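Priority: medium. Attachment 1 of 2:
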C-alpha cells in the first residue's frame, strides 16, 4: 500500500470471488497499528485511498498506549474484539507461582502471562467469534461496510494486524464469496509482510535464552501467524453454522440480501475478451476484461485498469505485392500493372484491360511476296 510507518499494510482487492468476479481494489484495507503513520502515510490514506472509516479492533489498553492518529475527515471507531473482562478474569486465576519472576513492563513477560492464562492459544479466534464482544464488533464492522459511501475506503486494524484483523479479513472475504484457500493465503501473508520484524524478534528471544517449542509459541503470540489458528476457526464455523456465511447470518445478523448487496457493490463482475490479431483491414485487441461497472482491465484480477482505447490493436495495412503488366498480343488481351495484398488478397491497384492488338498490318518491306516485288520492279523498268 506504500505506507512507511504502518506495518503489515495490505488490501483485499484483487482476490477472485467466483463466477469471474474479483474484489474491488482500494476499498478494504488491513494493517497493523496506525500509531506510527507518517504525515505522508496519512495523506496517502486520505487522498489516494479516499479513506472514510478506521475501525480499531484493539483493547482499550492497547488503544490508549498507542493511539491512532487523527486524519481529517476520517471517522475512527473503536470496536474491541477481545472481551476485556474475561481477559482480566483469566489473569486473576493465575497462581502466584505462574506470576513469579514476570515483569509486566516487559513485552515478552506480558506474552508469557497471556499464554499461561490461556488468552493466547490456537483456540482464541473461536473464543472471540463466539463471545458477545467479538460478535458485536464484527457485526458493526459489516454495518460500516454497508454504510460506506461510494468510492470510499474502510481500514481495519489491531496491533500487529494479524489475528483480530486476520479474522476480520476472513469474515469480509467469506461474505464476498472468496474461497477458503485464498482466505488462508491472505491470512498467512502476515509472515511475509512481517518477515523483518519476525527475524529480529526471534533473535531477541533467542538472545534471552528461549528455544524450541517455547520460542515458536511466543513468536506466534507476537508477530507470526500459524495456519492452524485460522483452520480451527474455519472448522468451528463449518461444524456449527454450515459455513462462514452461515455464521455471519446467524451470529452477526446479516441477511442474505445484505450479503448479496455487499457482493454487488464490492466485486467487479468480469467478462473476458480474448486477444484477437489485427488483420490488414480490421483492428484486433489485446486480452482484456470488462466489468458491468464500465471499467476495462488488462488482467483478470482487476489490478490494472486501462482505457477503452488501450485494448485496440490498430489494423496493420495491406502488404502490397506488384502484379506485373501483361503485354497484349493480337490473340490475347493484356493487363496494365496493378497490386494486391499478399495477406488478405484484397486488390489495391486494379489492373486495367489492354485491348488485343489489331492484326499485323504486314509491312511491305518484310512480308511482301517475291512475286509482287518482281511485278513492281517490272513496272518500273517498263516505264
Ligand atoms: Zn466493476
Ligand atoms: Zn491485406
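Attachment 2 of 2:
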Amino acid at each position: 500500500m506504500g505506507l512507511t510507518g504502518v506495518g503489515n499494510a495490505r488490501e483485499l482487492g484483487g482476490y477472485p470471488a467466483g463466477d469471474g468476479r474479483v474484489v474491488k481494489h482500494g476499498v478494504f484495507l488491513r494493517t497493523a497499528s496506525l500509531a506510527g503513520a507518517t504525515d505522508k502515510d496519512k495523506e496517502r490514506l486520505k487522498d489516494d485511498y479516499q479513506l472514510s472509516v478506521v475501525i480499531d479492533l484493539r483493547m482499550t489498553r492497547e488503544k490508549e498506549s498507542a493511539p491512532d492518529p487523527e486524519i481529517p475527515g476520517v471517522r475512527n471507531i473503536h470496536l474491541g474484539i477481545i472481551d476485556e473482562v474475561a481477559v482480566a478474569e483469566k489473569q486473576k486465576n493465575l497462581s502466584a507461582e505462574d506470576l513469579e519472576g514476570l515483569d509486566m513492563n516487559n513485552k515478552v513477560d506480558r506474552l508469557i502471562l497471556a499464554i499461561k492464562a490461556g488468552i493466547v492459544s490456537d483456540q482464541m479466534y473461536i473464543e472471540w467469534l463466539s463471545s458477545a464482544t467479538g460478535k458485536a464488533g464484527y457485526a458493526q464492522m459489516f454495518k460500516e461496510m454497508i454504510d460506506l459511501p461510494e468510492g470510499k475506503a474502510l481500514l481495519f486494524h489491531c496491533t500487529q494486524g494479524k489475528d483480530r484483523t486476520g479474522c476480520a479479513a476472513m469474515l469480509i472475504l467469506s461474505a464476498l464469496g472468496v474461497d477458503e484457500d485464498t482466505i488462508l493465503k491472505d491470512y498467512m501473508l502476515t509472515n511475509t509482510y512481517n518477515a523483518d520484524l519476525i527475524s529480529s524478534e526471534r533473535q531477541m528471544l533467542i538472545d534471552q535464552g528461549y528455544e524450541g517449542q517455547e520460542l515458536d509459541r511466543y513468536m506466534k503470540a507476537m508477530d507470526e501467524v500459524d495456519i492452524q489458528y485460522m483452520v480451527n476457526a474455519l472448522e468451528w464455523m463449518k461444524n456449527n453454522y454450515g459455513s462462514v456465511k452461515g455464521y455471519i447470518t446467524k451470529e452477526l445478523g446479516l441477511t442474505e440480501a445484505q450479503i448479496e448487496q455487499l457482493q454487488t457493490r464490492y466485486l467487479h463482475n468480469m467478462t473476458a475478451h480474448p486477444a484477437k490479431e489485427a488483420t490488414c483491414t480490421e483492428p484486433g485487441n489485446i486480452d482484456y476484461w470488462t466489468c458491468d461497472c464500465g471499467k476495462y482491465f488488462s488482467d483478470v484480477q482487476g489490478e490494472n485498469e486501462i482505457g477503452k482505447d488501450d485494448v485496440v490493436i490498430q489494423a496493420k495495412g495491406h502488404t502490397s505485392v506488384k502484379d506485373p503488366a501483361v503485354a497484349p498480343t493480337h490473340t490475347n488481351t493484356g493487363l496494365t500493372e496493378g497490386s494486391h495484398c499478399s495477406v488478405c488478397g484484397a486488390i489495391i491497384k486494379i489492373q486495367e484491360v489492354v485491348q488485343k492488338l489489331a492484326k499485323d498490318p504486314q509491312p511491305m518491306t518484310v512480308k511482301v511476296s517475291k512475286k509482287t516485288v518482281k511485278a513492281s520492279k517490272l513496272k518500273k523498268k517498263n516505264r
